[in-house]
Amino acid sequence: MCLGIPMKVLNIEGEKAIAEIGGIEKEISIALVDDLKVGDYVIVHAGFAIEKLDEKEALETLELIREIIE
Amino acid sequence: MKYILEFRESSLQEPLIEKIKEISFRKGKFKIMEVCGTHTVSLFRSGLRDLLKDYVEVISGPGCPVCVTPDSFIDKAISLSKKKDFIITTFGDMVRVPGSKSSLEKERANGADVRVVFSPLDSLTIAEENPSKKVCMLGVGFETTSPSLAFTIIQAKRKKLKNFFMLSAPKLIPPALSALLDERIGIHGFILPGHVSAVIGSKAYKILEERSIPGVITGFEPLDLVQGIYMILRQIERNEGKVEIQYKRVVKEEGNEKALKTLNEVFEPVDSEWRGLGMIPKSGLKIKDLYSEFDVERVFPLEIEKSEENPACKCGDVLKGIANPEDCPLFRKVCNPENPVGACMVSSEGTCSAWYKYKI
Q1: Could you report the per-residue pLDDT of A9-59, keeping only the tens digit for each?
Q2: The complex's ipTM?
Q3: Do both B97 and B167 map to the same domain?
Q4: Are residues B110 and B212 located together in one domain of the fold?
Q5: Could you tell me where the DSSP H helices lie in B312-358?
Q6: Nearest C-alpha in A relative to B248
């Protein structure tokens, strides 16, 4: 039930936003996340963005895996 | 970066699995537990559970909110659904969970108004569209969900809604881990839940560090899981017992402060009953007095008979990780996803349901 999906923010209006994944658009609440910009990716759970995704950290995780397996 | 395919890259997974095998050859086979239904399903669907079974034993714990919700909660929801002018709104899985005598699905067939919502905010829309009815949301979930439930109550207050209520029973993961460790079932490490931790942060798991039990907050794609398991085994090998974050693209040490603030504005910790684990101190959330007008149990006091669970159902032991579904005499015989006896078979993220679907 804690399933969360990474979606891209397309449009922001107050505490609401339109987010997209695989061509599907959905209205979500962004009341629980600060400083969101159009183009950011968020984890969406039960219609709410619960956190922003951090691209720098994602790339570092992949880099760390490459270091472990070398 | 779309954050999905990048973390399914098999050319990175395979060498990492070799690393897990190497630790297992050096140190033996360890038992680790995941406490998130999404991990349960992801481990099966990716085939990792089978691939790793000779090197590390991964067991499922109380990671599915629907599964750990006791019969007494369902009985209360059923009792509300029978009241005149009530509409019950809920996340989908709860509809089919059997209470001690009935389920919301059966009550709906008998005429009760039970509606499934995607977001808790949908309940407010239903309340606005039905001013002559009383709308009650079943507030179930872990820390991933409870900030959304809290925000829904704040929003109801802002909108001055008089016909919206919540039957509130959100639960907290860290006290459950503590209760599990007290049972001494021999867990060497925890795969910690990624989205619960997005809200509460890694600092919330002090109880693990105090007992020197390794824990790694892990994402949900196959590469995340392989790396998370590797990090736990590496800690075990080095005799460490700390909390690390694998899922760094989402989880911060301090968690999501805005979500936590929202949660703490509306809810406060309370002792709570878990299916299988019994009463755990300060492991649930109740609505604070400031928002008591939305607490259905305070506005409409409920009396229900003492709940009885099916004595043959091993859901409780499965949730504690001391039995697997195949140890249950009902599994696959009378209990299946079409006709579930226990909650672990109802939710698609329940351990019994995942075993039924994916276990070869």
Answers
A1: 999 999 999 999 999 999 999 999 999 999 999 999 999 999 999 999 999
A2: 0.97
A3: yes
A4: no
A5: 315-320, 343-346, 351-358
A6: A57
